[in-house]
Amino acid sequence: MTYSGVVTVGGPADVHELPDLMISKVAVGPMNNNAYLLRCRATDEQLLIDAAAEPHTLLSLIGESGIASVVTTHRHQDHWSALREVVDATGARTYAGQYDAEGIPVPTDVPVADGDTVRVGRVELTARHLVGHTPGSIALVYNDPHGHAHVFTGDCLFPGGVGNTWKDSKAFESLINDVETKLFDQLSDETWVYPGHGDDTTLGAERPHLGEWRERGW
């Protein structure tokens, strides 16, 4: 089956099969949050991005093999509402951006800084600190050695724009600058974007609109 990235709350996961990494996307909770389960194909080690809601759904997706770690992309409650239950059930190590960790009630085992590496088995993800939606939001970039990059953006980049900065002009300027310099300037148009809510996109689909986003200011 071809991966589309289109999922619905209560529906099945969609699975993106890469040579070294399996990515399972599921939608959970009243805010239609996306959670992503990453599995290293060489070791079967698993990592969850955003234990957002519905712990029973996430634990069913994880399965009996469990997970080694959970990464929380940012401090907003809709992205960690199931974190305590998932950690208690799996014993997973917790990761979050170093400037958002204090806003997440489940203790962060590994505070993450810009450029840090997060591993799942033999697969390496690079954290990028994107300031504006929250002080410590992080995206995770997987540079697939067999193809283009894949980036998990939390609430910092969506189809059609950057994340909400609540009409704070300084926060918006910070976020769009970080998204441009750390994602668009460094990654190819083919880069697949996995956002915190809704459908996926690519950097190529969004790149022509960066000027429009700056002009509208959100």
From TrEMBL:
Which InterPro entries does the protein's record reference? Answer: MBL_Glyoxalase_II, Metallo-B-lactamas, RibonucZ/Hydroxyglut_hydro
The Metallo-beta-lactamase domain sits at 32-197
User: What domain of life?
Assistant: Bacteria
CDD domains, from UniProt?
metallo-hydrolase-like_MBL-fold
Which SUPFAM superfamilies does the UniProt entry name for this protein? Metallo-hydrolase/oxidoreductase
Write the protein's name: Glyoxylase, beta-lactamase superfamily II
Tell me the classification of the organism that encodes this protein.
Bacteria, Bacillati, Actinomycetota, Actinomycetes, Kitasatosporales
